[in-house]
Amino acid sequence: MTRLGLAEEPERLRESGAPVPGAGVGGPALTAGTRADAARALRRAVEEVADWSHRPIGPESFASFPYRAVVGYYRQVGKAAVAPELVALLRGLRIRIGCAGGGRPWSSPDAWLFDRWLPLTFTDQPMAYDTYAGHELLQIAHWEADSAEHAEDLLMMALLADLATVELDALALPEPTGRQRTRTVAVLQALARLGGYAPAAVPDAVSLEPLRAVVAAASGNEALVRAGRETVAALRAEVPAGLRRAVDIGLLPVTTVHDEHMFIRSIQLFERIFARVAGALTDAIGAVRAGRPSDAAAVLSAAADRLTGATPALYRVLTTIPPETFAVIRDHTHGASAIQSRPYQMIELVSAKRADGPYAMEKGPMFTVPATLQEEFLERAGGWDTAEARRLQEAMLGLDAAWRSMKRTHWGVTLKIIGKVSGTGGTTGADYLKAAANIELFPMLAAA
């Protein structure tokens, strides 16, 4: 079975499937195995799915689905190389459940999770941003949180903790590469700053200061691994079981390269940031309409703080992917592009009207809104206290600056990793991102 650009990799692994020394950034995934391993994993997955499918199906039965066997096999071989007999079995299972009426997704959180997860396993559908990263599946966070803010922060914490676990495991291998240490340190730095951009998720009982101190001291690998694992364990204990399951099963890499795990987690983390900013903008519109400009200013300032707190650290992680390795991933993910992100589109759509919309017609927009924040502000600001109006205008411009700074960084990262080749979503790639970085969220305010 070819390893999608890593054809030599199976022979480098022990027959047991244990990872080879030095495997990490740019190398094989820790979950990759030999052909014999893949055959055993396939047999186990088929047998367990077939056995489950013969049981009575009801709302309570979905919690016992053999996710571990199926996901484990997918990660061993990469989604692009999954055996068609397993895909056919999973497709048939969906049809059977639908005909029996036992899988209504609203009947229980487990049924909902299964309903959203199963299509992610199908390998004959076009690649798309949402299905590649399992964004919809992760919305289960909203079932198990006190508020939308708490849900998004919990999800950020769960995703980053999982990424840290994988990179710490790679650093703990014999003879880790220098690039693996760089990656792991970058992930731990992002984790240590979690309280700044996902404060609703970090409990008072968990201190991130010990991890921050170990990373700042440039400690050895053993100390990094020990401190990182202690912090991850404390954070994961705060994540509801259903969300932990969603985070785990939603990751189905297309290849068997180690870096794709990080790449998917990064996509998922940025999507959460986009969702928070989009939510802040819609909340601000509501506050402006209700005559509460101070509330609108506060929510926009908080969103800007989260952007400036999270995105530099996350982009630092993303830049650790070697360009030649990303090329392998890119070859199998064409069509899945962040320009398809609904929260990303929502941000630029609800902020202000533009002549051609935030994107060319073939890329969106996917939404319509009765009035943008810029329109609402310009219509109502004249009736407010001058200081309140100025405060909101400054908050809007602050968010604009943070958003464009994030896009400029994205452009720079893209130049470093893929150069000036075309983008996966049909754009001009880095040139498209450079142009997008110059688009103001509130052009009439910026021009004033």
Task: Write a concise synopsis of the structure shown.
This is Tryptophan 2,3-dioxygenase. The chain is mainly α.
* H/E element sequence: HHHHHHHHHHHHHHHHHHHH
Mean pLDDT: 86
CATH architecture assignment of the largest domain: Up-down Bundle
Strand content: under 5%
Q: Which fold name fills CATH's third level, the topology of the largest domain?
A: Methane Monooxygenase Hydroxylase, Chain G, domain 1
Return the CATH class of the largest domain.
Mainly Alpha
Any idea what the shape is? globular
Biggest β-sheet strands, sense, barrel: none
Number of domains: 3
Q: How far is the first residue's CA from the last residue's CA?
A: 61 Å
What is the β-strand count? Answer: 0
Helix content: 55-70%
Index terms:
448 residues; mainly alpha; Methane Monooxygenase Hydroxylase, Chain G, domain 1; 3 domains; 20 helices; 0% strand; disordered N terminus
Describe the structure in your own words:
With 448 residues, the chain is mainly alpha-helical. It folds into 3 domains: 9-125, no CATH class; 144-252; 254-448, Methane Monooxygenase Hydroxylase, Chain G, domain 1. Helix content is 60%, strand content 0%. The chain is built from 20 helices and no strands. It has helices at residues 9-12, 35-53, 67-77, 84-100, 109-117, 129-133, 148-171, 178-192, 194-197, 209-216, 221-236, 241-249, 258-289, 293-318, 323-331, 342-351, 373-380, 386-418, 430-436, 443-446. α7 packs across α12, α13 (258-289) runs antiparallel to α14 and α14 packs parallel to α18. The longest helix is centred in the last third of the chain and has 33 residues, at 386-418. The radius of gyration is 23 Å and the shape is globular. Residues 1-19 and 357-365 have low confidence and may be disordered. InterPro entries: Trp/Indoleamine_2_3_dOase-like. This is Tryptophan 2,3-dioxygenase.
